[in-house]
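Lecture notes, unit on protein representations.

Consider one protein chain, 184 amino acids long.
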Amino acid sequence: MLVAVRTPAAPLGLTATDGILGVALAGGVVALAMHAGWMGSAGAATIALVVAALVAPALARIDVAERRLPNLLTVPLLGIASACALVGAMLGTWVGALVGLGVAVVLVAMWWLGGMGAGDVKLGAGLALAAAPIEWWLPLSGMACAFLLGGAVGLVAKVRGADSVPFGPWLLAGTGVAVVLAAV
């Protein structure tokens, strides 16, 4: 009988600052959703985006410090975002859900080809699916913003001699920029 032995994951080391910033960002998402009038199918997106906002500071800090995005934070976000995109699809925003799913497939292909880490794929897919019920184009614009921001920072880092930069903070920032622009 074979028994899989797993090494325990490194502790998250969540800080009070992570919690305070996460709650502040989540409050901002709720205020933005109220301002934009996201009701009905977009209300499902608000739930997923609030969850993303709650974990965003910890994910960004951990990715910058350790170059990893912990499953303990990315997998629940992906699950909640998937459920919210499904609810949104059932309420009529099925095009957005399909676009969000398409973004997730492209991210998986990038991981398979070696261009992205698995944590980035889970986070990016979760963010794309979270934004999907708002507008069908939002998952695409969020990823476009992430790649523009991350690419610019990566170019500067490359010039300075770095081999790579963590992409998680740019996924979060790009999606945030896109969601704010969609609300105004």
